[in-house]
Amino acid sequence: MNFLIYVLSFISLWEAARAYFITVDAHAEECFFERVTAGTKLGLAFEVAEGGFLDIDLRIIGPDNKVLHEGERESNGRYTFPAAMDGVYTYCFSNKMSTMTPKSIMFSMDVGDSDEKKEHGEVEAASK
């Protein structure tokens, strides 16, 4: 019985998380989008795997176009936050600062359940 619960839990997490491996060219920006309802837990984890100084700029933008997080020259990070409102949340990886070197990035976007106990709109950085 415990094994069945473990397998079902793993499958439910598998559907909620998507992992990607992308290349962001020099002077370029790549954005990804997630449509959710208010109160839904969102998460982003990333690491620059290859290229230059292993750094990338990151912006997390809410449905109202408000920047929720902006980081410069980050090598990795893990961020979680509850959606403050219904709509499309945007994650952008920017390599505009690079003159020649593309960057390879591994990242996952997680969408969880609604959590009414958290304060809406606060982006939390997990320890690195």
TrEMBL record:
Membrane topology per record: Single-pass membrane protein; Single-pass type I membrane protein
Main location: membrane
UniProt KW keywords: Developmental protein, Membrane, Signal, Transmembrane, Transmembrane helix
GOLD domain span: 29-111
Organism: Hyalella azteca (Amphipod)
The protein's name: GOLD domain-containing protein
Range of residues in the leader sequence: 1-19
Classification via InterPro entries: Emp24-like (IPR015720), GOLD_dom (IPR009038), GOLD_dom_sf (IPR036598)
Superkingdom to which the source organism belongs: Eukaryota
Single GO cellular component term: endomembrane system
PROSITE patterns on file: GOLD
Pfam families: EMP24_GP25L
Family: Belongs to the EMP24/GP25L family.
Subcellular locations according to the entry: Endomembrane system; Membrane
